[in-house]
Amino acid sequence: MSSGNDSFIQLIKNIPKAEIHLHLEGLISVDTIWKLIQENKLSFEGSDSKENLKKRFAVRSLDEFIDLFINVIQASFLKEQDIEHLINDAQEYLKRNNIVYAEIFFAPSKFIQSGFSYSHMADILQAGAEKIKEESGITIKFLIDVSRTFGPENADNNLSQVLDNPRESIIGIGLGGSESSGPAKDYEKVFNRAIKNNLKVVAHAGEDVGPESIWDTINYLKAERIGHGISAIEDNKLMDKLKENQIPLEICPTSNLFTRKYVSEIDKHPIRDFYNHGMYVTVNSDDPTLFGSELTEEYILLYENKIFNEDEIINIMKNTLFACYISDKQKKEIWKDAEKVINKFKSS
Asked: How far apart, in whole angstroms, are the C-alpha atoms of residue 64 and residue 59?
């Protein structure tokens, strides 16, 4: 396949896409947070105007990111109904990036601790998924982040809430939060119970901790996909295992560069080595607003820096779609639509 950079970048934008590693709170816009600050009559240091809030969103370190996420973004939500704003921002993001199917993490722990009703939040997520489908034709499903940050007991309580409040749009659980303080094996019972109840199970691993974290996620949690997984580059046996089992890696390049734990330059990112090794590579954006890079831009970053050529970018897009939790029939239908766009590009 051959064409100029500009036309292929346009193709990246035009192809109907899937995304599988995306946090709902990480989709919120500065405008929405400013609206919530005003509606809820809140005051945060350094956020006394929309301009200053915008500057606060331009985080430069992991500490600044955590401070913004906990002390501004999550602290702006005072009632369950505020979560509707997240749905609206998600819809705009998905439309901008021509994403037709997405699996989105939602982390309820902090909200539940603030007195929010999980059942009411689940209703809002379900109504939001139905609204987006009706208005934009986009399908979204949710994975509830049981979270390492608050410990195994809290994770088990979150799972109980999911099981006691089933919703069609909520399909499973994920393990996010602080990887360094929450070893995967501590959550084995939680994940076993989720699997017994036919929930999908995924987990962040190898983002901030070495390959042993990924091994534990596979062995103890039986995770079907690995969020990030970049520390696998330090363990050839693990790379072989991931290749052999074709466990999808939900790789988020800009997020990995930002945290700077294993890579700080795009041309040194292990994604190329993983791809060459035959591992199952997907590309995602993680927290688009906070990291300043949306899904389309992630693909453009990899293409413009010559990490992958045109055919490889298209193959990774297909990988991402086929790693989704939808039927083979649905995957084939979406990819058929993608091929129409691709074939038009090839023949032009």
From this structure: 6
| Annotated active-site residue in 207, 297, 298, 310 | 207
Helix (H, G, I), strand (E, B) or coil at 137: coil
User: What's the domain count of the chain?
Assistant: 1
Which one, of 238, 241, 242, 178, lies nearest residue 207 by Cα?
178
Nearest to 94 by CA among 339, 321, 263, 294: 294
pLDDT truncated to tens, each residue of the chain (348 aa)?
444 688 999 999 999 999 999 999 999 999 999 999 999 999 998 888 999 998 888 887 767 877 888 889 989 999 999 999 999 999 999 999 999 999 999 999 989 999 999 999 999 999 999 999 999 999 999 999 999 989 999 999 999 999 999 999 999 999 998 888 899 999 999 999 999 999 999 999 999 999 999 999 999 999 999 999 999 999 999 999 999 999 999 999 999 998 888 999 999 999 999 999 999 999 999 999 988 899 999 999 999 999 999 999 999 999 999 999 999 999 999 999 999 999 998 887
User: Is 207 tagged catalytic?
Assistant: yes
| CATH code of the domain containing 302 | 3.20.20.140
Could you give the count of Cα atoms lying within 13 Å of 161 in the half-sphere of its Cβ?
Answer: 23
Domain span including residue 293:
5-347
For residue 279, give the 3-state DSSP assignment: coil
Residue with token string 């139905």: 130
Q: How far apart are CA 335 and CA 294, in angstroms?
A: 21
Q: How far apart are the first and last CA of the chain?
A: 11
pTM given for the model: 0.95
